[in-house]
Amino acid sequence: MGTILIVDDEAAARYGMRRALEQNFRVVEAESAREAREAISRTAPALVLLDLVMPEEDGLSFLRALRASGDETPVLVVSALDTARTAVEALHHGANDYIVKGFDIDELRKRVANLVQLGELGAENRRLRRELVADGQFGRMLGGSAAMRRVFEMAERVAPTDATVLILGESGTGKDLLAQEIHARSPRAERAFVAVNCAALPENLIESELFGYERGAFTGAIEQRKGKFEAASRGTLFLDEIGDMNPATQAKVLRALESRKIERLGGGPSIDVDVRVVSATHRDLQAEISAGRFRQDLYYRLRVVTLEIPPLRAHKEDLPLLVDRFLTQLGARHGRSPAISREAEEILRRYDWPGNVRELRNVVERALVLCGADQIQAADLPSEVRENQAGAGAPHATAGDSFLSEADFREARRKFEIAYLKRKLEEHRWNVSQTAAEIGLQRQSLQEKLRELGIERPGKG
Fold first, then answer.
1. Angle at 321 between CA 317 and CA 322, to 5 degrees
2. Model-level pTM?
3. What are the pLDDT digits (tens) for 25-66?
4. Minimal CA–CA distance to 57: which of 34, 88, 73, 30?
5. Which residues, 6+ apart, have CB-to-CB distance to 29 below 8 Å?
6. Which CATH class is domain 143-308?
7. Regarding the domain delimited by 401-453, which CATH topology (the fold level of the hierarchy) does it fall under?
8. Can you give the residue ranges of every domain in the chain?
9. Distance CA 170, CA 173 (A)
10. CB neighbourhood size of 247 (10 A)
11. CA angle, corner 43, sides to 41 and 46, nearest 5?
């Protein structure tokens, strides 16, 4: 028997709803938002029946806070306010349905039953998603290694909230895919996901792209145009490569995040915006701040939650999983289904992938198209991969370099230890005894350190 929470400051209203529902549900009552929060944490209700007009904290404020915390419990607003505006506002802030007091009892029971069923389906969906994360899959992203699972688990927790997210990682690691999946798992999923590449837009166009403009704002502005902030209304705005944004635009973005208002170029009234901002960059923002190229106050506003996707060279144990996925996807597109030889697999494992997962996908597609038989051979791989050379001018850092950008000593040490031990284990083909002997540790001590750092042998993620 599921639990229904009735939140209403009027005892008579609570009594009437209780009598209508108690035959099929366990009913809990709260006469204020404060009591409702306590009841939710104590009883985990299947549905909340919420009045809007209450003393101290009204129903809409309570509903906004509930959704901002990531709570997806279905909410049926039950109010004496019979206006379309009130209903729309309630639904806008996360209510699942709206019914006006004076309702028919059978209608209430039907609405409640439908929403309880909706909640059960949502809970089952979330359970299945958690299982996929545990298996190393987050939407279109794959990774069974401990490093990738940590990213997926954190993203899974933050997605249902309204928190601002900053995604860090080298080019080609999948920052845009992670942002899209966070949006898809959020309460804003039915609304727009609007992406802006801050590095691709000329400096003189980025402000008009983000904030829009009024007619006559500049030469060529022959009509009013809405910007990306408005286009993403009630959805998610993804600011990709925000580290490349110029300082003047940074100031306006900061103001928009703080005030939840924007102004189009050329003047006009302030416009309220309701967007969740997810941003990403391959740059070291701490270094950019030190160099005076990025605003520290904007950095702190963006990094409410930070997700850092590791480069592919730091989790090579995921290569077989990724290669298999790409062969399946791309093979279906090109009408081919070759396997990959052991020699070719070994070459892929030795290469350091400066272009990360994006480069791996391109290499697999090239080999799949060019291979002459039913198996990809070493000769089908690009020469720079076979010779283990990064392309000229490609951004390449050794696996241990990422720790140098960490502000926190303990995190820097953890990253260094992971990179160092993985490199040594790879040199000894993951023979723990040989690795321990070379680096001066007892085998048991090394095994304990590997467990502590979450380092797993390839193929056992």
1. 100
2. 0.62
3. 999 999 999 999 999 989 989 999 999 989 889 999 999 889
4. 34
5. 5, 6, 7, 8, 14, 18
6. alpha beta
7. Arc Repressor Mutant, subunit A (1.10.10)
8. 3-128, 143-308, 312-386, 401-453
9. 6
10. 11
11. 105
